[in-house]
Amino acid sequence: MRKDSRLSRVLHALIHLHHYGKPATSDDLGKMLGTNPVVVRRTMAALREQGYVSALKGHNGGWSLAKPLTEITLYDVHKALGEGSVFTIGLTDEHNNCLIEHGVNQALRDVMQEAEALMLARFKQVTLANLASEFDKHKLAV
């Protein structure tokens, strides 16, 4: 099963932007993340729409943070990316008339909704500054 690592990768890029000290081009970010600059531009545009990053065109242009890391949460980024469920577990619908399938699906749906609500609530508590501070601790220890 393929994992969706978009949230993790975008968080990675945003914290790098914080430490970069100058605007980063889509090419720079694409190389860092191992992806195409077009994908970077599309993703960063979604963050720009929410006011988390800004873009400067021309020589010495690129992407920069528009807000301090203390004002951006994991939830904010998750939502800006248009992410749906945090889980990739799917419910089966192959046997619509089977009462057992209905029961299994309802039980799984209830558990996943409860877990997702807890996870998203926690996302709201974690700022990007919290993540960056972990990096800073490790950087100082080296």
From TrEMBL:
Top-level taxon of the source organism: Bacteria
Signal sequence bounds: none
InterPro entries reported for this sequence: Tscrpt_reg_Rrf2, WH-like_DNA-bd_sf, WH_DNA-bd_sf
Coiled-coil regions, chain positions: none
PANTHER family given in the database record: HTH-TYPE TRANSCRIPTIONAL REGULATOR YWGB-RELATED, WINGED HELIX-TURN-HELIX TRANSCRIPTIONAL REGULATOR, RRF2 FAMILY
A family per Pfam: Rrf2
Protein name in the entry: Rrf2 family transcriptional regulator
